[in-house]
Design goal:
Elements: H1 6-15, H2 20-23, H3 28-41, H4 45-50, E1 52-53, E2 56-57, H5 76-86, H6 89-102, H7 107-110, H8 112-115, H9 122-131, H10 137-164, E3 170-174, H11 185-191, E4 196-197, E5 202-203, E6 211-213, E7 221-228, H12 234-247, E8 253-260, E9 264-266, H13 274-280, H14 289-299, E10 306-311, H15 320-332, E11 336-343, H16 353-361, E12 365-369, H17 371-382
Parallel strand pairs: 7-8, 7-10, 10-11, 11-12
Antiparallel strand pairs: 1-2, 3-6, 4-5, 8-9
Helix pairs in contact: 3-5, 9-10, 10-12, 10-13, 10-17, 12-13, 14-15
Length: about 375
């Protein structure tokens, strides 16, 4: 029996069953992959409209007439088991992402059997945040594992990027403070050469020397992060929670974290625990930016030492004139107003450009940033 050509098999998997006549059949493993792909991508509305499946036919009423494991027979748990057995890691991640984000198969994050074995990823974190209101307490606790794992990875990476903006560089001036990271090796060596003992081949150090550090002079500043909870802002919500945790406790900076929809929720007390912050977020609902900015204005202690950062798509569902009036008041009193249409790694936003332009005309800084760019902006303003 002639084995199928590997290259032709790949094309057959891409094109589906209609190509089998020209490309030949599939091996047992490839056929299993084909069924797994068809279980997911056979849901494509364009295929359904044409009355075909990626790997077979549908009847006049749309019923599945293909052989093998049809969508009605395979549960998300079964499918996930097959996917992890049949595909490499990078393909698994793509399939899981499409299942959740493209086809809305929420069972992947609401089924305890799936959550018990699935690998945490940012795709799954987004899915958990969108579906946690559907979860019972047991499933919610399991979902927290995904949130905690992804947040830990983000914290470890972003903390370095965010805090780098607030660390001074070393100068060549001596320092009275003895810290290992500021040890001046060359000056210490020169100053203690008289204590070298040739017979022991050792240099005894009587007085170590250290370098000082230059640091921007920082007065007490406030950073008030207002984060839109609308569904389109999920990536910005995630990065805002992690960035706020990284900024918390930096010298000279007091950080507030506030989320909003049609109501305002001040999460500053939980700011050091971004997992708890994210599990508290309720995505979706209306958007009252004016109400959130008015709340932030009430938090400002010293207007000329405050930054109000509004992270939103600027599709205002509240009083637009009140929003413009409040922003104008903040700018006129010396507060820096920053409008961010996105705060994430890509900084590629979709937002109401007309309202954003009106805010910019009032003196607000408007754009999109990565967490590191936000930290640099804050440090530059403070410095």
């Amino acid at each position: 029996m002639r084995l199928p050509d590997a290259g032709l098999e790949r094309w057959r998997l891409v094109l589906g069953e209609p190509a089998e006549e020209h490309l030949g059949g599939l091996s047992e493993t490839a056929a299993a992959r084909d069924r797994a792909l068809d279980w997911l991508y056979g849901r494509d509305p364009e295929h359904a409209r044409r009355g075909i499946r990626r790997g077979g036919l549908r009847g006049p009423g749309g019923e599945d007439r293909s052989g093998g494991l049809g969508a009605a027979q395979v549960t998300p748990v079964d499918w996930l088991d097959d996917v992890h057995r049949l595909f490499p890691k990078e393909t698994i991640e793509r399939l899981e992402r499409d299942a959740v984000e493209r086809y809305g198969i929420t069972e992947i994050v609401t089924d305890p059997a799936v959550l018990a074995r699935i690998e945490p990823s940012r795709t799954l974190l987004r899915a958990v945040l969108r579906t946690k209101h559907l979860m019972n307490p047991e499933v919610l606790e399991m979902a927290r594992r995904i949130v905690a794992a992804v947040v830990k990875e983000l914290l470890e990476r972003l903390a370095v990027e965010v805090r780098r903006s607030f660390h001074g560089t070393r100068s060549r001036r001596p320092s009275p403070w003895r810290r290992a990271r500021d040890f001046d090796f060359h000056r210490t060596l020169r100053a203690n050469l008289g204590h070298y003992r040739p017979e022991e081949r050792r240099l005894y150090i009587e007085r170590p020397h250290f370098l000082s550090r230059t640091r921007r002079h920082m007065e007490r500043w406030q950073l008030i992060l207002l984060v839109d909870q609308s569904g389109s802002m999920v990536d910005s919500v995630i990065h805002s929670a992690v960035t706020a945790a990284c900024l918390w406790g930096l010298p000279g900076l007091k950080t507030h974290l506030v989320t909003f929809s049609t109501s305002v929720v001040d999460l500053t007390e939980e700011i050091t625990d971004p997992v708890e912050v994210l599990m508290s977020v309720q995505l979706g609902g209306g958007t009252d930016i004016a109400g959130a900015v008015r709340y932030a204005a009430g938090l400002v202690d010293n207007p000329r030492r405050a930054i109000v950062a509004v992270i939103s798509d600027f599709y205002e569902g509240g009083d637009e004139q009140l929003l413009l009036h409040t922003v104008r008041g903040l700018v006129e009193q010396g507060t820096r107003v920053l409008g961010l249409a996105a705060l994430d790694e890509d900084a590629e936003p979709d937002y109401d450009r007309a309202l954003a332009q009106r805010l910019a005309d009032l003196g607000a800084h408007v754009g999109a940033m990565t967490p590191g760019q936000l930290a640099s902006f804050v440090a530059d303003v403070m410095g």
